[in-house]
Write a structure and sequence with these properties.
Elements: E1 5-6, H1 15-24, E2 27-32, H2 37-53, E3 57-63, H3 71-82, E4 86-90, E5 100-108, E6 111-120, H4 126-129, E7 136-140, H5 148-164, E8 169-171, H6 174-183, H7 208-222, E9 227-232, H8 238-248, E10 254-258, H9 261-274, E11 280-283, E12 294-298, H10 299-302, H11 305-308, E13 318-321, H12 330-338, E14 343-348, H13 353-360, E15 367-371, H14 373-378, E16 385-391, E17 402-403, E18 406-407, H15 409-416, H16 419-432, E19 437-440, H17 444-456, E20 461-464, H18 472-481, E21 486-489, E22 504-507, H19 514-522, E23 534-540, H20 548-554, H21 560-571, E24 582-585, H22 587-594, H23 601-612, H24 618-623, H25 628-635, H26 638-644, H27 650-668, H28 675-685, H29 695-708, H30 728-735, H31 738-744, E25 756-759, E26 762-765, H32 774-792, H33 808-811, E27 835-847, E28 851-852, E29 859-863, E30 875-882, E31 897-902, E32 915-921, E33 927-936, E34 942-945, E35 954-955, E36 960-970
Parallel strand pairs: 2-3, 3-4, 9-14, 9-15, 10-12, 10-13, 11-12, 13-14, 16-23, 16-24, 19-21, 19-22, 20-21, 22-23, 27-30
Antiparallel strand pairs: 1-7, 2-5, 4-8, 5-6, 6-7, 17-18, 25-26, 27-29, 28-33, 30-31, 31-36, 32-33, 32-36, 33-34, 34-35
Length: 981
Amino acid sequence: MGQFLTTGGASDPFLPRLLEAIRRANRIDLAVAFIKISGLDLIYPALIDAVETRDAELRVLTSDYLDVTDPNALRRLMLLSERGASIRVFQSERQSFHLKAYICVQNRESETLWGTAFVGSSNISRTALTDGLEWNLRVEQTDDVESAEGRRFREIREQFEAIFSHPQVSCLDHEWIEQYEQRRRLVQNLPVAAGCDEPEEPVPQPSLVQQEALAALAASRAAGYKRGLVVMATGLGKTYLAAFDSRAVQAKRVLFVAHREEILLQAEASFQRVHAGARVGRYTGTSKQTNVDLLFASVQTLGKAQHLERFAADHFDYVVVDEFHHAAAPTYRELIRHLRPSFLLGLTATPERTDQSDILSLCDDNLVYSRHLFDGIELGALSPFHYHGIYDETVDYREIPWRNGRFDPQALEHKLATEGRAKHALRYWSERARQRTLAFCISRSHADFMAERFRRQGVRAEAVYRGSALERSAALEQLEQGRLQVIFSVDLFNEGIDLPAIDTVMMLRPTESKVLFLQQLGRGLRRHPDKEALVVLDFVGNHQGFLNKPQALFGVGSSYAELADFGRDVRDGRLELPRGCFANYDLAIIEFLIRLQGQGPATDYQALRASLGRRPTLVEFYRSGSSLQALRRQHGQWWALVADQGDLSPDERASLEQHGDFFREVETTSMTKCFKAIVLESLLDLDGFRRPPTIEDLGSQALEVFRRRRRFIVDIREDLRQIDDVEPAKWLSYWKGNPIKAWIGGNRRDDATRWFKLDRGRFAAAFSVAEDELATFHAMVHELVGYRLAAYEPRLPETAPADPAPTKRERATVLPFAKPSAHRKDEDIADTDGTEVPYFPDLRIACGHFRSGKTDVETIYRVPAGHGTIDPRRHFVARATGHSMNGGKHPVRDGDYLLLELVDPANAGSITGSVVAIERQDVSGADQYVLRLVTKNRDGRYLLKAAHPDYPDFEANDEMRPLARLRAVWAGNEEGSLGPE
């Protein structure tokens, strides 16, 4: 330990000696007259490490003497109290209290192995611990307990015990802090001791990105939403956003739910800073507090029924579910189903809509705001990166067993901890790394192995993990000070660690989770004055287990075809990157990606399954860009593909055999409006396959579904869209019409299958489902309904609150009918060689009377240059049927090909004078289309006019809506040739 007296100042500050003692001890006793948040911040990481990683016993005694102690410092100490620390306060009551003692002991069972105590003049303030002239005398435990030194040390400990149990000492709790705050009369600049006048911690203010998100959340609530999902990349402050938003709505009781302890710890500190004066509590396996303002709960505990029942559905005003990409898990679903707060906010940093597919419905299909990693870099909130995808040439990952979506841990460790791989990593690190490297390893032994091999070559490197000789907080200090060059870590640095000085991240292990990969990357993306860009050294192997990395970082789709396209884009230098960023893959990796070119839906399914580490859902398959039309051509329906891949349980396989025709009907039934899917979701909500509901109950539940899924309200007749105040009788009369008739058969021919029937006023399935298969059947139908609504949603006008500044990449994410390559640039849309657009051979546009058509079979047609800007997100091709538009200057003949441009139904006035494809649904639920010239009468009603005199004109009504404007026509026998518009 060196000298016995620490004199303070720049030459001999007290802080390093105190931290060294804290990190060595498993029993820590502190007694100081006052605590300032500026000083507590300096030792807080070491105290957290002590109680969380070493299970150290921590006791802290401070006082209210002269009201100098910060209330916020006391609240921060309460977070330590939740983790087992004992925090007490000496109530001075005009009695002087000037103690400054720090006692650190290392015990083994009942034996004291080592101990040291500092007694002197330093309180816990930044000045006293760093550059203040403070004298602190160190007294040590000795082997001879009866020596003068030994007796002094024993006396200090005994006196601490006495003062800690003094009658004027109280246990710190939120009530005491509140009373202290009310009676506090701090005299500024009172010369009590160094640091007593240090300013208290300012309340943080939202960043520009957070301000955007807050505005979007406010707009979302104004639109009537009670739930919403926010996607924000690691480093953009989604936890603080939740704290700011819950404060903005003046929520009295807030619940924050996550599944990892480190997230709860970080969130508590963030919320505590924003919600000044709030009571903070925990609800976990070891702590169950309820009488607090801000409750931080682990989903593993609170998600259980016996714990949820302790809280009324409306107990919390505001609920935050962090890492919402996990929300499809049963425990999360049960929690979300039970709680009915004024607002529920889902947070995630998940990189692509594929991962959001299942969870978005849990937030009422309300994606409030989205900022991904590239957005953060472009906005200047995150550091640019220089990414090197390095071929992991010393490891053949095909030899490592792959089980349940991950490599076998023991076999993987054995392959990674080798001399050859260590040399490979060291060579690339030596060539490309900068000053401060954080490296991620698969296990403790792997981290120890890598650190030892790097040290052999003169690199200052250490392995850091739970229980390692060097603790996390100490390692970060040494890295920042330049005493360390590399930290080899296992799990301790994935989340919640903020060290902007990290300028190199080395990925030495595969990560099954995209989110984990981005969290690890995010440790180095914080901006720093000395960091031009983050260097990323990612060791990538020859296995599908690595495919989630380009998906996470570059937004590549999950299908093999898209991954192969990505490989070609990398090879040809076509990657779109934010300014200041660089990305390069070794040629062997590029060739591996290109060889992945898919052979159809089965290979796409396998790629998505590998990416997710589990069976994908149909929504996820759809979002990934895979072809549903190819799926149905080759397999018939979704569940048949899943069965062919061996992913159906015995119960699911039996349900498919029994109800396969109904499943296919749900998956492919024509939908001009969303009503058919809404009816099914309402029926599932009411457990209607077990107990058929009345038409009245089904209609009421449909209204509740629309209140959850407000994006779909535009499909409702205009006079009924105020769904929060709609007249029940008027709504029921409307809902008994087409939506119900569509499922019970309506005017279908007699030999058509009728899947539902009206039985004494109840809406019932026309087939039976056995009681023991209901749960499986429900789950399978629910997945199909989720897909139908997800696939239908892009056809809706953009009326819901959305990202105020979507990027090019985001604007191309969801397409009405087809999905072009995820890497197509906007400027490529007007390609001089022509542009590929979706072609629907079965979507026949009637030139006569309304005619049924289907949009579930899609191919591609290349539109040649010379027809203006063609955008595959808005344009498609179909064929004409009939003769009603065969007249005038630009006749449309039977069999002609039509180039059509989707229109927004909310802006129908813009189509007056245009030839438009009009869409409606017949009483059987079939989609129908007709092509007509749209004109407007003097009274404001729309008239749909034919070009041929043999066909009558007719008025538009509420059951019709404009689908697409005619852009060009070419004859059916002129393949690839376009005539004038």
